[in-house]
Each structure stands twice: as structure tokens, then as C-alpha cells.
């Protein structure tokens, strides 16, 4: 299974861990991937998403709810 985000395609990166004495050791930086169930076109999909994408999806979802609430309030007036 690949260590890649299904949404933004973020993957592993290579670099160095640097100690206080400036010793450099090779290190593999891995993305923080989580398994999440997402609704897409009315279907449930299980996806591996990085935490940044999960945060973005939550923000989009709350924006949609706020927009629908404001439209409903405007329709009642």
C-alpha cells in the first residue's frame, strides 16, 4: 500500500535529522495519513487522507452548512 494521500498526492520525503551537534543522519519523513470515510456523489468511499486534507474537508463542510443556514433564514424572512 502506498504512503500517498488520495486527495493531494502527498507522499514520503527524504532528508536529514540534524542533532544539536549538527550530526546528520538520513531520515524518511512520512505524511500523517488517516483512513476516513468520505461521501462522494452519494456513495461512501474509504480513503487515505493526510490531516491537512481532512481539516480542509471539515472547513468546506462547515462553510456549506453555514451557507445553507443563512439561505434558509433569508427564505423565512
Features:
two-stranded antiparallel ribbon, two-stranded antiparallel sheet, Ribosomal Protein L24e, Chain: T, 1 helix, alpha+beta
Roughly how many Å apart are the termini? Answer: 53 Å
Structural class: alpha+beta
Annotated CATH architecture: Roll
Into which percent range does the helicity of residues fall?
25-40%
* Tally of strands: 4
- Overall outline: elongated
* pLDDT < 50 runs, ≥5 residues: none
CATH H level: which superfamily?
Ribosomal protein L28/L24
SSE series: EEEEH
What is the CATH domain class? Mainly Beta
How are the strands ordered across the major sheet?
1-2
Strand fraction equals: 35-45%
Number of helices: 1
Cα radius of gyration in angstroms: 20 Å
Question: How many domains make up the coordinates?
Answer: 1
Overall mean pLDDT: 88
Largest sheet: 2 strands, antiparallel
CATH structural fold name: Ribosomal Protein L24e, Chain: T
Structure description:
The chain is α+β, with helices and mostly antiparallel strands. 34% of the residues lie in helices and 36% in strands. It has one domain: Ribosomal protein L28/L24 (Ribosomal Protein L24e, Chain: T). The chain contains 1 helix and 4 strands, in the order E-E-E-E-H. A hairpin with a 2-residue loop joins strand 3 and strand 4. The model has no long low-confidence stretch (mean pLDDT 88).
Amino acid at each position: 500500500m502506498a504512503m500517498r494521500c488520495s486527495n493531494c498526492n502527498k507522499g514520503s520525503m527524504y532528508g536529514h535529522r540534524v542533532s544539536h551537534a549538527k550530526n546528520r543522519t538520513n531520515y524518511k519523513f512520512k505524511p500523517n495519513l488517516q483512513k476516513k470515510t468520505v461521501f462522494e456523489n452519494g456513495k461512501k468511499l474509504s480513503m487515505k487522507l493526510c490531516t491537512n486534507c481532512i481539516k480542509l474537508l471539515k472547513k468546506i463542510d462547515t462553510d456549506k452548512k453555514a451557507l445553507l443556514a443563512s439561505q434558509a433564514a433569508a427564505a423565512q424572512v
